[in-house]
């Protein structure tokens, strides 16, 4: 059975290095840095292999998310799986962050 | 740990019907190639992916394929090749 | 605020066909999730804001220039080149890079062989040397077609190779990371290391194009 990540040889569109190239944004670099730290030798919190498995577990949704959003999703689930934080803690934090971002946007 | 294969050996990639996380893409399964080098032994990513230690170590090889053996419709010279890393438990002598 | 569609990526062109600049921020839900995960990890002492800042800084220093320095050194120092090809750990330590437990596999372009690197299963890339991989390297189109029709993909980068030259694709699917050692171009005899470095592009070290033409470099 072919996992959603197993793209080798499948039909696909043109490779467009002009359109599909951009300087990594600050947001992307932050997600990247967070991931590298979570997987590093110092913390031994998770392996990058686990995050790959999490992404593959997305199934058809694997194709829906842009790259960094997919990794972010995978790391979030890994942290929940390992009990680093709970679903309740995450939801409370998301509500707090949402309120803050909305206030910033409305205040601007 | 002794490698089962050496450079130059002809090998076939197994069609393992293995669930879970694997690093052997579908496009090489069932195909025949040649060992290009012994890479060394590593913890098994198929187990690491589930938080396991990944032990015992598995031997990893680079395997060379002719593109015309991988794809029926390969539209390039017959000398074009592809090389990929395959773990020993995915290999059989060809 | 514009709609974001997730077919495979954000909308890439306006109605009259001009490429849209990638938005600096993703949809609000992704922003909220990232901030939430980051803040929770900091609150729990798993990471610090300083470590994140420092990691971004390190990432920003990596890129084309480090790879170019390594390649230029290999072009001008035969003993280093041998080390790079056969004992890459030791060669990289000379540049202050330690990639272990991963290992760098350097593949050399020659008169007869052109090498090209892809990771079909995800986006494995020699990050300690080249930094963050380009967006196209991570997308389905490259990952799917580089292994099956490499010459057609190379053409999309403007790279056309004669049939007499073998194209060898490396699928970076396990514990090795790959760097292409491009061929030193004709007409660069006596060039300084800095002049040579200026020819070596990130794309030539991935293997989708060759180095810059010395005749056009103005050196």
Description:
The complex is a heterotrimer of chains A (108), B (94) and C (219). Chain A is mainly α. Chain A is built from four helices and no strands. Chain A has helices at residues 26-38, 48-56, 67-81, 87-107. In chain A, α1 (26-38) packs parallel to α3 (67-81) and α2 (48-56) crosses α3 (67-81). Chain B is mainly beta and 94 residues long. Chain B has one domain: SH3 type barrels (Roll), CATH 2.30.30.50. Chain B is built from two helices and five strands; from the N terminus they run ββαβαββ. Chain B is globular and about 45 Å long. The model of chain B has no long low-confidence stretch (mean pLDDT 96). Chain C has one domain (62-216): Alpha-Beta Complex (Nitrile Hydratase, Chain A), CATH 3.90.330. Chain C is built from eleven helices and four strands; from the N terminus they run αααααββααααββαα. Chain C has helices spanning 28-43, 49-61, 64-76, 78-86, 88-93, 127-130, 135-138, 140-145, 150-156, 193-197, 202-206; strands at 103-108, 113-118, 166-171, 176-181. In chain C, the strands form two sheets. In chain C, strands 1-4 form a two-stranded parallel sheet. A two-stranded parallel sheet of chain C has the order 2-3. The chains are: A mainly alpha (108), B mainly beta (94), C alpha/beta (219). Chain B binds chain C through residues 23-25, 27, 39-40, 42, 45, 60, 62, 67, 70-71, 74-77, 79-87, and chain C through 101, 103, 105, 120-121, 147-152, 163-164, 166-176.
């Amino acid at each position: 059975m072919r996992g959603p990540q197993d793209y080798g040889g499948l039909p696909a569109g043109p490779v467009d290095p002009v359109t599909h190239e951009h300087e990594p944004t600050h947001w992307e670099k932050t997600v990247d840095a967070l991931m590298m730290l979570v997987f590093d030798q110092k913390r031994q919190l998770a392996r990058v292999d686990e995050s790959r498995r999490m992404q593959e577990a997305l199934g058809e949704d694997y194709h829906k998310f842009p790259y960094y959003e997919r990794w972010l999703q995978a790391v979030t689930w890994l942290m929940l799986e390992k009990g680093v934080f709970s679903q309740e803690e995450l939801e409370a934090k998301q509500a707090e962050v949402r309120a803050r971002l909305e206030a910033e946007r409305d205040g601007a | 740990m002794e490698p089962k294969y050496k450079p130059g050996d002809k090998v076939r990639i197994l069609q393992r019907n293995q669930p879970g996380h694997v690093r052997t893409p579908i496009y090489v399964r069932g195909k025949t190639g040649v060992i290009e080098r012994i890479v060394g032994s590593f913890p098994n990513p198929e187990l690491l992916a589930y938080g396991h230690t990944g032990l015992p170590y598995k031997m990893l090889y680079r395997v060379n394929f002719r593109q015309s053996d991988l794809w029926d419709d390969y539209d390039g010279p017959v000398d074009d090749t592809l090389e990929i890393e395959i773990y020993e438990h995915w290999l059989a002598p060809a | 605020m514009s709609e974001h569609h997730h077919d495979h990526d954000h909308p890439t062109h306006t109605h009259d066909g001009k490429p849209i600049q990638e938005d600096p921020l993703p949809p609000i839900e992704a922003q909220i999730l990232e901030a939430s995960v980051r803040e929770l990890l900091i609150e729990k002492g798993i990471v610090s804001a300083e470590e994140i800042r420092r990691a971004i800084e390190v990432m920003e220093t990596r890129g084309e220039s480090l790879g170019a320095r390594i390649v230029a050194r290999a072009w001008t120092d035969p003993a280093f080149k041998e080390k790079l090809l056969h004992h890459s750990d030791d060669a990289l330590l000379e540049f202050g890079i330690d990639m272990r437990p991963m290992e760098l596999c350097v593949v050399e372009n020659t008169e007869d062989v052109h090498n090209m690197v892809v990771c079909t299963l995800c986006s494995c890339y020699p990050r300690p040397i080249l930094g963050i991989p380009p967006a196209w390297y991570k997308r389905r189109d490259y990952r799917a077609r580089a292994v099956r029709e490499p010459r057609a993909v190379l053409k999309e980068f403007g790279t056309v190779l004669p049939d007499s030259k073998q194209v060898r694709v490396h699928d970076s699917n396990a514990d090795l990371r790959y760097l292409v050692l491009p061929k030193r171009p004709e007409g660069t005899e006596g060039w300084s290391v800095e002049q040579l470095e200026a020819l070596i592009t990130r794309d030539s070290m991935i293997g989708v194009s060759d180095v810059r033409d010395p005749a056009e470099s103005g050196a």
